[in-house]
Amino acid sequence: MPDPSTFEFDVATAITPRGDDTYDAEIHAGWDINGNANGGYLLALAVAAMRDASGRPDPVTVTAHYLAPGRPGPVVIDTDVVKRGRQLTTVTGTMRSGDRDALRLLGSFGDVAAMSGGFADVVGGPPDLPPIEQCVARDTSVGVVTVELMRRLGVHLRPEHTAFTRGEKSGRALIEGWFQFADHRPIDTLALMLVVDAFPPPVFNIEMPLGWVPTVEMTVHVRGLPAPGPLACRFHTEFIQNGFLQEDSEVWDSAGTLVAQSRQLALVPRG
Amino acid sequence: MPDPSTFEFDVATAITPRGDDTYDAEIHAGWDINGNANGGYLLALAVAAMRDASGRPDPVTVTAHYLAPGRPGPVVIDTDVVKRGRQLTTVTGTMRSGDRDALRLLGSFGDVAAMSGGFADVVGGPPDLPPIEQCVARDTSVGVVTVELMRRLGVHLRPEHTAFTRGEKSGRALIEGWFQFADHRPIDTLALMLVVDAFPPPVFNIEMPLGWVPTVEMTVHVRGLPAPGPLACRFHTEFIQNGFLQEDSEVWDSAGTLVAQSRQLALVPRG
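Predict the joint structure of the above. Result:
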Protein backbone atom coordinates (compact mmCIF):
# COMPACT_ATOMS: atom_id res chain seq x y z
CA MET A 1 0.00 0.00 0.00
CA PRO A 2 1.33 3.49 -0.80
CA ASP A 3 2.12 5.96 1.96
CA PRO A 4 -1.13 6.17 3.97
CA SER A 5 -0.64 9.89 4.55
CA THR A 6 -1.60 10.45 0.93
CA PHE A 7 -5.13 9.00 1.25
CA GLU A 8 -7.99 11.10 2.56
CA PHE A 9 -9.46 8.26 4.67
CA ASP A 10 -6.16 7.72 6.47
CA VAL A 11 -5.75 11.41 7.19
CA ALA A 12 -9.32 11.53 8.51
CA THR A 13 -8.91 8.47 10.76
CA ALA A 14 -5.47 9.35 12.18
CA ILE A 15 -5.16 8.74 15.93
CA THR A 16 -2.52 9.89 18.41
CA PRO A 17 -2.03 7.60 21.42
CA ARG A 18 -1.46 9.24 24.79
CA GLY A 19 0.04 6.01 26.05
CA ASP A 20 -2.72 5.05 28.52
CA ASP A 21 -5.16 3.49 26.03
CA THR A 22 -6.55 6.99 25.39
CA TYR A 23 -6.28 8.52 21.93
CA ASP A 24 -6.59 12.01 20.55
CA ALA A 25 -8.20 12.31 17.15
CA GLU A 26 -10.17 14.72 15.06
CA ILE A 27 -13.49 14.55 13.27
CA HIS A 28 -12.47 15.99 9.92
CA ALA A 29 -14.73 18.23 7.90
CA GLY A 30 -15.85 16.82 4.58
CA TRP A 31 -17.15 13.46 5.86
CA ASP A 32 -20.58 14.77 6.70
CA ILE A 33 -24.17 14.93 5.57
CA ASN A 34 -25.45 18.46 6.14
CA GLY A 35 -22.84 19.09 8.84
CA ASN A 36 -23.24 15.83 10.79
CA ALA A 37 -20.32 13.44 10.39
CA ASN A 38 -21.32 10.18 8.73
CA GLY A 39 -21.92 7.36 11.22
CA GLY A 40 -19.64 4.98 9.35
CA TYR A 41 -16.81 7.50 9.39
CA LEU A 42 -17.23 8.02 13.15
CA LEU A 43 -17.24 4.25 13.59
CA ALA A 44 -14.02 3.89 11.58
CA LEU A 45 -12.34 6.63 13.62
CA ALA A 46 -13.27 5.03 16.94
CA VAL A 47 -12.36 1.57 15.68
CA ALA A 48 -8.93 2.82 14.56
CA ALA A 49 -8.18 3.61 18.23
CA MET A 50 -9.74 0.40 19.58
CA ARG A 51 -7.83 -1.65 17.01
CA ASP A 52 -4.57 -0.02 18.06
CA ALA A 53 -5.31 -0.79 21.71
CA SER A 54 -6.16 -4.40 20.82
CA GLY A 55 -2.83 -5.05 19.13
CA ARG A 56 -4.69 -7.06 16.47
CA PRO A 57 -4.94 -6.06 12.81
CA ASP A 58 -8.70 -6.32 12.19
CA PRO A 59 -12.06 -5.54 13.74
CA VAL A 60 -14.06 -8.82 13.68
CA THR A 61 -17.29 -7.68 15.36
CA VAL A 62 -17.96 -4.14 16.52
CA THR A 63 -21.11 -2.55 17.95
CA ALA A 64 -21.59 1.18 18.34
CA HIS A 65 -24.40 3.08 20.06
CA TYR A 66 -24.75 6.61 18.71
CA LEU A 67 -25.38 9.10 21.50
CA ALA A 68 -24.77 12.52 19.95
CA PRO A 69 -24.05 13.84 16.44
CA GLY A 70 -20.38 14.21 15.51
CA ARG A 71 -19.26 17.70 14.53
CA PRO A 72 -15.84 18.51 13.07
CA GLY A 73 -13.23 19.11 15.74
CA PRO A 74 -11.11 17.28 18.30
CA VAL A 75 -12.34 14.11 20.00
CA VAL A 76 -10.91 11.84 22.65
CA ILE A 77 -11.28 8.08 22.32
CA ASP A 78 -10.97 6.10 25.54
CA THR A 79 -10.37 2.37 25.15
CA ASP A 80 -10.19 -0.50 27.60
CA VAL A 81 -8.92 -3.97 26.72
CA VAL A 82 -11.17 -6.32 28.69
CA LYS A 83 -9.86 -9.68 27.46
CA ARG A 84 -6.95 -10.86 25.38
CA GLY A 85 -7.91 -14.30 24.11
CA ARG A 86 -6.15 -16.69 21.80
CA GLN A 87 -8.07 -15.61 18.69
CA LEU A 88 -9.81 -12.40 19.76
CA THR A 89 -9.16 -9.36 21.91
CA THR A 90 -12.22 -7.60 23.29
CA VAL A 91 -12.13 -3.84 23.74
CA THR A 92 -14.60 -1.20 24.91
CA GLY A 93 -14.52 2.31 23.46
CA THR A 94 -15.92 5.77 24.14
CA MET A 95 -15.63 8.67 21.70
CA ARG A 96 -15.96 11.95 23.57
CA SER A 97 -16.59 15.24 21.82
CA GLY A 98 -16.27 18.10 24.30
CA ASP A 99 -17.97 16.92 27.48
CA ARG A 100 -20.39 14.63 25.66
CA ASP A 101 -20.15 10.98 24.71
CA ALA A 102 -20.75 10.75 20.97
CA LEU A 103 -20.32 6.97 20.65
CA ARG A 104 -20.06 4.01 22.98
CA LEU A 105 -18.57 0.86 21.49
CA LEU A 106 -17.84 -2.78 22.20
CA GLY A 107 -15.74 -4.84 19.82
CA SER A 108 -13.60 -7.91 19.35
CA PHE A 109 -10.48 -7.78 17.20
CA GLY A 110 -8.44 -10.49 15.53
CA ASP A 111 -6.38 -11.42 12.50
CA VAL A 112 -8.80 -12.17 9.67
CA ALA A 113 -6.03 -13.47 7.37
CA ALA A 114 -4.96 -16.00 10.02
CA MET A 115 -8.56 -17.18 10.43
CA SER A 116 -9.12 -17.80 6.74
CA GLY A 117 -10.01 -21.20 5.31
CA GLY A 118 -11.80 -24.06 7.03
CA PHE A 119 -15.37 -25.21 6.47
CA ALA A 120 -17.34 -22.85 4.24
CA ASP A 121 -20.94 -22.75 3.13
CA VAL A 122 -22.58 -19.66 1.72
CA VAL A 123 -26.21 -19.12 0.72
CA GLY A 124 -26.67 -16.49 -1.97
CA GLY A 125 -24.01 -14.33 -3.55
CA PRO A 126 -23.07 -10.81 -4.49
CA PRO A 127 -25.59 -8.60 -6.27
CA ASP A 128 -25.36 -8.94 -10.03
CA LEU A 129 -24.52 -5.29 -10.63
CA PRO A 130 -24.08 -3.60 -13.99
CA PRO A 131 -20.53 -2.32 -14.62
CA ILE A 132 -19.66 0.81 -12.64
CA GLU A 133 -19.83 3.02 -15.72
CA GLN A 134 -23.48 1.99 -16.22
CA CYS A 135 -24.34 2.82 -12.59
CA VAL A 136 -25.34 6.22 -11.21
CA ALA A 137 -22.77 8.14 -9.19
CA ARG A 138 -24.26 9.23 -5.87
CA ASP A 139 -24.56 12.96 -5.94
CA THR A 140 -23.27 15.44 -3.38
CA SER A 141 -26.70 16.99 -3.07
CA VAL A 142 -30.11 15.41 -2.46
CA GLY A 143 -32.68 18.20 -2.62
CA VAL A 144 -31.58 20.74 -0.03
CA VAL A 145 -29.27 18.26 1.72
CA THR A 146 -25.56 18.42 0.99
CA VAL A 147 -23.77 15.09 1.18
CA GLU A 148 -20.19 16.31 1.46
CA LEU A 149 -19.14 12.73 2.19
CA MET A 150 -19.74 11.82 -1.42
CA ARG A 151 -16.75 13.91 -2.59
CA ARG A 152 -14.53 11.38 -0.79
CA LEU A 153 -16.25 8.28 -2.14
CA GLY A 154 -17.10 6.67 -5.42
CA VAL A 155 -20.53 5.23 -4.67
CA HIS A 156 -22.31 4.12 -7.83
CA LEU A 157 -25.88 2.88 -7.55
CA ARG A 158 -27.78 0.37 -9.64
CA PRO A 159 -29.94 2.57 -11.91
CA GLU A 160 -33.25 0.87 -10.95
CA HIS A 161 -32.53 1.74 -7.30
CA THR A 162 -32.15 5.49 -7.83
CA ALA A 163 -35.86 6.33 -8.12
CA PHE A 164 -35.65 8.34 -4.89
CA THR A 165 -33.14 10.75 -6.46
CA ARG A 166 -35.88 11.83 -8.90
CA GLY A 167 -38.59 12.13 -6.25
CA GLU A 168 -39.94 8.71 -7.23
CA LYS A 169 -40.16 5.39 -5.37
CA SER A 170 -39.05 1.96 -6.51
CA GLY A 171 -41.46 0.53 -3.92
CA ARG A 172 -38.82 -1.69 -2.33
CA ALA A 173 -36.41 -0.72 0.47
CA LEU A 174 -33.35 -1.99 -1.41
CA ILE A 175 -30.29 -0.18 -2.75
CA GLU A 176 -27.39 -1.96 -4.44
CA GLY A 177 -24.24 -0.46 -5.84
CA TRP A 178 -20.48 -0.23 -5.96
CA PHE A 179 -18.20 1.26 -3.34
CA GLN A 180 -14.70 2.60 -3.77
CA PHE A 181 -12.77 5.59 -2.50
CA ALA A 182 -12.61 8.64 -4.76
CA ASP A 183 -8.81 8.58 -4.39
CA HIS A 184 -8.77 4.80 -4.94
CA ARG A 185 -7.37 4.02 -1.49
CA PRO A 186 -7.22 0.24 -1.10
CA ILE A 187 -10.10 -1.10 1.01
CA ASP A 188 -9.00 -2.77 4.23
CA THR A 189 -11.04 -4.03 7.17
CA LEU A 190 -11.00 -0.59 8.83
CA ALA A 191 -12.55 0.95 5.71
CA LEU A 192 -15.39 -1.61 5.91
CA MET A 193 -16.63 0.31 8.97
CA LEU A 194 -17.27 3.25 6.64
CA VAL A 195 -18.63 1.20 3.74
CA VAL A 196 -21.55 -0.21 5.75
CA ASP A 197 -22.97 3.28 6.30
CA ALA A 198 -21.95 4.95 3.03
CA PHE A 199 -25.11 4.34 1.00
CA PRO A 200 -28.43 6.21 1.03
CA PRO A 201 -30.98 4.62 3.38
CA PRO A 202 -32.85 2.02 1.31
CA VAL A 203 -36.12 3.24 2.87
CA PHE A 204 -35.79 6.31 0.62
CA ASN A 205 -37.17 3.99 -2.06
CA ILE A 206 -40.49 3.36 -0.31
CA GLU A 207 -43.41 5.59 0.67
CA MET A 208 -42.16 6.69 4.08
CA PRO A 209 -41.87 10.19 5.46
CA LEU A 210 -38.46 11.39 4.18
CA GLY A 211 -35.91 12.74 6.59
CA TRP A 212 -32.84 11.97 8.61
CA VAL A 213 -32.70 8.32 9.69
CA PRO A 214 -30.60 8.53 12.86
CA THR A 215 -28.75 5.37 13.78
CA VAL A 216 -29.31 4.15 17.33
CA GLU A 217 -27.04 1.12 17.10
CA MET A 218 -24.92 -0.50 14.43
CA THR A 219 -23.12 -3.85 14.49
CA VAL A 220 -20.58 -4.81 11.84
CA HIS A 221 -19.14 -8.28 11.28
CA VAL A 222 -15.97 -8.48 9.20
CA ARG A 223 -16.10 -11.80 7.38
CA GLY A 224 -13.06 -11.61 5.09
CA LEU A 225 -10.12 -9.53 3.87
CA PRO A 226 -11.28 -7.54 0.82
CA ALA A 227 -9.51 -8.43 -2.44
CA PRO A 228 -8.38 -5.38 -4.44
CA GLY A 229 -11.07 -3.57 -6.39
CA PRO A 230 -14.49 -2.05 -5.80
CA LEU A 231 -16.99 -3.65 -3.46
CA ALA A 232 -20.47 -4.82 -4.48
CA CYS A 233 -22.92 -3.80 -1.76
CA ARG A 234 -26.53 -4.54 -0.92
CA PHE A 235 -28.51 -2.47 1.61
CA HIS A 236 -32.05 -3.43 2.58
CA THR A 237 -34.75 -2.88 5.21
CA GLU A 238 -37.49 -5.38 6.02
CA PHE A 239 -38.99 -4.27 9.32
CA ILE A 240 -40.33 -0.79 10.01
CA GLN A 241 -42.61 -0.54 13.04
CA ASN A 242 -43.00 1.07 16.46
CA GLY A 243 -40.75 3.99 15.54
CA PHE A 244 -37.74 1.90 14.54
CA LEU A 245 -36.37 0.30 11.41
CA GLN A 246 -33.63 -2.24 10.81
CA GLU A 247 -31.17 -1.83 7.96
CA ASP A 248 -28.90 -4.67 6.88
CA SER A 249 -25.99 -4.72 4.49
CA GLU A 250 -23.93 -7.38 2.81
CA VAL A 251 -20.64 -6.32 1.27
CA TRP A 252 -18.82 -8.45 -1.31
CA ASP A 253 -15.34 -8.03 -2.75
CA SER A 254 -14.25 -8.28 -6.37
CA ALA A 255 -13.53 -11.99 -5.93
CA GLY A 256 -17.16 -12.61 -4.95
CA THR A 257 -16.41 -13.17 -1.26
CA LEU A 258 -18.58 -11.75 1.50
CA VAL A 259 -16.30 -9.40 3.46
CA ALA A 260 -18.78 -7.69 5.80
CA GLN A 261 -22.30 -7.82 7.13
CA SER A 262 -23.94 -5.07 9.12
CA ARG A 263 -27.22 -4.40 10.83
CA GLN A 264 -28.36 -1.15 12.30
CA LEU A 265 -31.38 -0.09 14.32
CA ALA A 266 -32.47 3.42 13.38
CA LEU A 267 -35.27 5.81 14.22
CA VAL A 268 -38.05 6.25 11.68
CA PRO A 269 -38.08 9.84 10.42
CA ARG A 270 -40.97 11.88 11.75
CA GLY A 271 -43.05 12.93 8.80
CA MET B 1 -49.10 -11.42 35.61
CA PRO B 2 -49.16 -13.86 38.57
CA ASP B 3 -46.60 -13.57 41.34
CA PRO B 4 -43.24 -13.72 39.50
CA SER B 5 -41.67 -15.75 42.29
CA THR B 6 -43.65 -18.72 41.05
CA PHE B 7 -42.06 -18.84 37.60
CA GLU B 8 -38.73 -20.55 37.03
CA PHE B 9 -37.42 -17.84 34.68
CA ASP B 10 -38.06 -15.11 37.26
CA VAL B 11 -36.35 -17.08 40.00
CA ALA B 12 -33.37 -17.71 37.70
CA THR B 13 -33.04 -14.04 36.66
CA ALA B 14 -33.50 -12.49 40.11
CA ILE B 15 -31.07 -9.65 40.86
CA THR B 16 -30.19 -7.94 44.12
CA PRO B 17 -29.05 -4.32 43.81
CA ARG B 18 -26.19 -3.19 46.04
CA GLY B 19 -27.27 0.40 45.50
CA ASP B 20 -24.29 1.55 43.41
CA ASP B 21 -25.42 0.19 40.02
CA THR B 22 -23.84 -3.14 40.97
CA TYR B 23 -26.02 -6.23 41.29
CA ASP B 24 -25.59 -9.62 42.88
CA ALA B 25 -27.16 -12.52 41.06
CA GLU B 26 -26.77 -16.24 40.56
CA ILE B 27 -26.39 -18.44 37.52
CA HIS B 28 -28.92 -21.12 38.39
CA ALA B 29 -28.37 -24.77 37.59
CA GLY B 30 -30.81 -26.24 35.09
CA TRP B 31 -30.42 -23.59 32.36
CA ASP B 32 -27.43 -25.27 30.78
CA ILE B 33 -26.29 -27.42 27.90
CA ASN B 34 -23.86 -30.00 29.23
CA GLY B 35 -22.99 -27.80 32.21
CA ASN B 36 -22.51 -24.50 30.39
CA ALA B 37 -25.28 -21.98 31.02
CA ASN B 38 -27.22 -21.11 27.86
CA GLY B 39 -26.07 -17.87 26.28
CA GLY B 40 -29.60 -16.49 26.09
CA TYR B 41 -30.16 -17.17 29.78
CA LEU B 42 -26.90 -15.38 30.67
CA LEU B 43 -27.98 -12.48 28.46
CA ALA B 44 -31.37 -12.26 30.19
CA LEU B 45 -29.72 -12.29 33.61
CA ALA B 46 -27.31 -9.48 32.72
CA VAL B 47 -30.05 -7.50 30.98
CA ALA B 48 -32.28 -7.78 34.08
CA ALA B 49 -29.63 -5.80 35.98
CA MET B 50 -28.97 -3.31 33.16
CA ARG B 51 -32.70 -2.74 32.74
CA ASP B 52 -33.06 -2.03 36.44
CA ALA B 53 -30.20 0.47 36.27
CA SER B 54 -31.76 2.13 33.21
CA GLY B 55 -35.08 2.79 34.92
CA ARG B 56 -36.83 1.86 31.65
CA PRO B 57 -39.08 -1.19 31.22
CA ASP B 58 -37.62 -2.80 28.09
CA PRO B 59 -34.34 -3.65 26.39
CA VAL B 60 -34.52 -2.16 22.86
CA THR B 61 -31.09 -3.13 21.52
CA VAL B 62 -28.52 -5.13 23.45
CA THR B 63 -25.15 -6.53 22.39
CA ALA B 64 -23.19 -9.07 24.41
CA HIS B 65 -19.67 -10.37 23.86
CA TYR B 66 -19.18 -13.80 25.44
CA LEU B 67 -15.81 -14.05 27.16
CA ALA B 68 -16.02 -17.15 29.35
CA PRO B 69 -18.55 -19.95 29.88
CA GLY B 70 -21.10 -19.41 32.64
CA ARG B 71 -21.14 -22.02 35.41
CA PRO B 72 -23.79 -22.20 38.13
CA GLY B 73 -22.97 -19.99 41.09
CA PRO B 74 -22.87 -16.37 42.17
CA VAL B 75 -22.12 -13.58 39.70
CA VAL B 76 -21.73 -9.84 40.02
CA ILE B 77 -23.20 -7.56 37.35
CA ASP B 78 -21.68 -4.09 37.12
CA THR B 79 -23.68 -1.52 35.20
CA ASP B 80 -23.02 2.06 34.15
CA VAL B 81 -25.67 4.40 32.77
CA VAL B 82 -23.85 6.40 30.10
CA LYS B 83 -26.73 8.47 28.73
CA ARG B 84 -30.33 9.13 29.71
CA GLY B 85 -32.03 10.37 26.57
CA ARG B 86 -35.62 11.28 25.88
CA GLN B 87 -36.52 7.89 24.37
CA LEU B 88 -33.58 5.66 25.29
CA THR B 89 -31.18 5.12 28.16
CA THR B 90 -27.81 3.59 27.26
CA VAL B 91 -26.12 1.28 29.73
CA THR B 92 -22.92 -0.77 29.76
CA GLY B 93 -22.73 -4.05 31.64
CA THR B 94 -20.18 -6.57 32.86
CA MET B 95 -21.07 -9.96 34.27
CA ARG B 96 -18.26 -11.23 36.49
CA SER B 97 -18.02 -14.82 37.61
CA GLY B 98 -15.27 -15.17 40.21
CA ASP B 99 -12.39 -13.03 38.96
CA ARG B 100 -13.30 -13.47 35.29
CA ASP B 101 -15.52 -11.43 33.01
CA ALA B 102 -18.09 -13.79 31.53
CA LEU B 103 -19.98 -11.19 29.45
CA ARG B 104 -19.48 -7.61 28.39
CA LEU B 105 -22.57 -5.78 27.23
CA LEU B 106 -23.80 -2.55 25.71
CA GLY B 107 -27.50 -1.78 25.48
CA SER B 108 -30.17 0.86 25.09
CA PHE B 109 -33.42 0.62 27.02
CA GLY B 110 -36.80 2.25 26.50
CA ASP B 111 -40.55 1.81 26.77
CA VAL B 112 -41.65 -0.31 23.83
CA ALA B 113 -45.37 0.20 24.57
CA ALA B 114 -44.90 3.99 24.44
CA MET B 115 -43.08 3.71 21.11
CA SER B 116 -45.80 1.66 19.42
CA GLY B 117 -47.65 2.81 16.34
CA GLY B 118 -46.47 5.20 13.65
CA PHE B 119 -45.37 4.33 10.13
CA ALA B 120 -45.12 0.59 9.56
CA ASP B 121 -43.97 -1.51 6.63
CA VAL B 122 -42.98 -5.15 6.97
CA VAL B 123 -41.59 -7.49 4.32
CA GLY B 124 -42.40 -11.13 4.96
CA GLY B 125 -44.20 -12.60 7.91
CA PRO B 126 -44.10 -15.28 10.56
CA PRO B 127 -43.25 -18.85 9.61
CA ASP B 128 -46.34 -20.85 8.69
CA LEU B 129 -45.89 -23.45 11.42
CA PRO B 130 -48.02 -26.52 12.00
CA PRO B 131 -49.93 -26.46 15.32
CA ILE B 132 -47.73 -27.11 18.36
CA GLU B 133 -49.14 -30.60 18.85
CA GLN B 134 -47.92 -31.55 15.35
CA CYS B 135 -44.41 -30.22 16.07
CA VAL B 136 -41.56 -32.10 17.72
CA ALA B 137 -40.70 -31.24 21.32
CA ARG B 138 -37.00 -30.51 21.64
CA ASP B 139 -35.50 -33.26 23.67
CA THR B 140 -33.32 -32.92 26.76
CA SER B 141 -30.67 -35.10 25.19
CA VAL B 142 -28.95 -34.89 21.81
CA GLY B 143 -26.65 -37.87 21.52
CA VAL B 144 -24.31 -37.65 24.51
CA VAL B 145 -25.19 -33.99 25.17
CA THR B 146 -27.68 -33.18 27.91
CA VAL B 147 -29.74 -30.07 27.27
CA GLU B 148 -31.01 -29.41 30.78
CA LEU B 149 -32.36 -26.08 29.55
CA MET B 150 -35.12 -27.90 27.70
CA ARG B 151 -36.83 -28.95 30.95
CA ARG B 152 -37.62 -25.26 31.50
CA LEU B 153 -38.86 -24.57 27.98
CA GLY B 154 -41.48 -25.77 25.57
CA VAL B 155 -39.59 -25.61 22.28
CA HIS B 156 -41.44 -27.45 19.52
CA LEU B 157 -39.76 -27.75 16.13
CA ARG B 158 -41.25 -27.99 12.68
CA PRO B 159 -40.98 -31.72 11.85
CA GLU B 160 -39.10 -31.18 8.55
CA HIS B 161 -36.40 -29.28 10.46
CA THR B 162 -35.61 -32.06 12.92
CA ALA B 163 -33.51 -34.21 10.57
CA PHE B 164 -30.44 -33.56 12.73
CA THR B 165 -32.07 -35.25 15.73
CA ARG B 166 -32.02 -38.53 13.75
CA GLY B 167 -28.45 -38.10 12.53
CA GLU B 168 -29.74 -36.85 9.17
CA LYS B 169 -29.45 -33.49 7.41
CA SER B 170 -32.21 -31.38 5.87
CA GLY B 171 -29.49 -29.70 3.79
CA ARG B 172 -30.55 -26.20 4.79
CA ALA B 173 -29.39 -24.26 7.87
CA LEU B 174 -32.91 -23.39 8.95
CA ILE B 175 -34.91 -24.32 12.04
CA GLU B 176 -38.41 -23.04 12.75
CA GLY B 177 -40.60 -23.74 15.72
CA TRP B 178 -42.65 -22.60 18.66
CA PHE B 179 -41.35 -21.16 21.93
CA GLN B 180 -43.07 -21.05 25.28
CA PHE B 181 -42.03 -21.63 28.87
CA ALA B 182 -42.68 -25.07 30.33
CA ASP B 183 -44.48 -23.39 33.25
CA HIS B 184 -46.33 -21.07 30.82
CA ARG B 185 -44.76 -17.89 32.20
CA PRO B 186 -45.98 -14.96 30.08
CA ILE B 187 -43.33 -13.83 27.60
CA ASP B 188 -42.12 -10.27 28.15
CA THR B 189 -39.27 -8.36 26.53
CA LEU B 190 -36.75 -9.72 29.06
CA ALA B 191 -37.68 -13.27 28.11
CA LEU B 192 -36.96 -12.44 24.44
CA MET B 193 -33.27 -12.37 25.42
CA LEU B 194 -33.58 -16.08 26.18
CA VAL B 195 -35.79 -16.93 23.22
CA VAL B 196 -33.23 -15.82 20.62
CA ASP B 197 -30.74 -18.44 21.83
CA ALA B 198 -33.13 -21.22 22.84
CA PHE B 199 -33.19 -23.23 19.62
CA PRO B 200 -30.68 -25.75 18.27
CA PRO B 201 -28.11 -24.15 15.93
CA PRO B 202 -29.63 -24.33 12.43
CA VAL B 203 -26.24 -25.44 11.09
CA PHE B 204 -26.95 -28.81 12.69
CA ASN B 205 -29.11 -29.37 9.59
CA ILE B 206 -26.21 -29.09 7.12
CA GLU B 207 -23.08 -31.12 6.52
CA MET B 208 -20.77 -29.35 8.92
CA PRO B 209 -18.57 -30.83 11.63
CA LEU B 210 -20.92 -31.17 14.62
CA GLY B 211 -20.00 -29.67 17.95
CA TRP B 212 -20.41 -26.76 20.26
CA VAL B 213 -21.03 -23.49 18.39
CA PRO B 214 -19.70 -20.91 20.84
CA THR B 215 -21.21 -17.45 20.51
CA VAL B 216 -18.68 -14.64 20.18
CA GLU B 217 -21.21 -11.83 19.97
CA MET B 218 -24.99 -11.54 19.95
CA THR B 219 -27.15 -8.50 19.28
CA VAL B 220 -30.89 -8.52 19.97
CA HIS B 221 -33.39 -5.91 18.79
CA VAL B 222 -36.74 -5.86 20.57
CA ARG B 223 -39.30 -4.71 18.01
CA GLY B 224 -42.58 -5.09 19.88
CA LEU B 225 -44.32 -6.23 23.08
CA PRO B 226 -45.27 -9.91 22.71
CA ALA B 227 -49.00 -10.62 22.73
CA PRO B 228 -49.98 -13.55 25.00
CA GLY B 229 -49.32 -17.01 23.60
CA PRO B 230 -46.46 -18.99 22.11
CA LEU B 231 -43.92 -17.36 19.79
CA ALA B 232 -43.26 -18.48 16.21
CA CYS B 233 -39.50 -18.44 15.64
CA ARG B 234 -37.18 -18.76 12.65
CA PHE B 235 -33.44 -19.38 13.02
CA HIS B 236 -31.15 -19.45 9.99
CA THR B 237 -27.51 -19.23 8.92
CA GLU B 238 -26.35 -18.02 5.50
CA PHE B 239 -22.63 -17.33 5.83
CA ILE B 240 -20.09 -19.83 7.12
CA GLN B 241 -16.49 -19.00 6.27
CA ASN B 242 -13.10 -18.15 7.76
CA GLY B 243 -13.91 -19.91 11.04
CA PHE B 244 -17.08 -17.94 11.79
CA LEU B 245 -20.78 -18.23 11.10
CA GLN B 246 -23.66 -15.82 11.47
CA GLU B 247 -26.97 -16.93 12.91
CA ASP B 248 -30.08 -14.77 12.62
CA SER B 249 -33.47 -15.11 14.22
CA GLU B 250 -36.85 -13.52 13.74
CA VAL B 251 -39.40 -13.97 16.52
CA TRP B 252 -43.12 -13.38 15.97
CA ASP B 253 -45.93 -13.28 18.51
CA SER B 254 -49.34 -14.92 18.34
CA ALA B 255 -50.79 -11.79 16.70
CA GLY B 256 -48.32 -12.13 13.82
CA THR B 257 -46.15 -9.17 14.91
CA LEU B 258 -42.37 -9.29 14.80
CA VAL B 259 -41.23 -8.86 18.41
CA ALA B 260 -37.50 -9.54 18.14
CA GLN B 261 -34.63 -9.96 15.72
CA SER B 262 -31.22 -11.26 16.63
CA ARG B 263 -27.91 -11.91 14.98
CA GLN B 264 -24.96 -13.69 16.47
CA LEU B 265 -21.42 -14.31 15.31
CA ALA B 266 -20.22 -17.73 16.43
CA LEU B 267 -17.19 -19.92 15.96
CA VAL B 268 -17.42 -22.83 13.54
CA PRO B 269 -17.01 -26.10 15.43
CA ARG B 270 -13.66 -27.77 14.80
CA GLY B 271 -14.34 -31.09 13.18
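The two ends of chain A are 46 Å apart (CA to CA).
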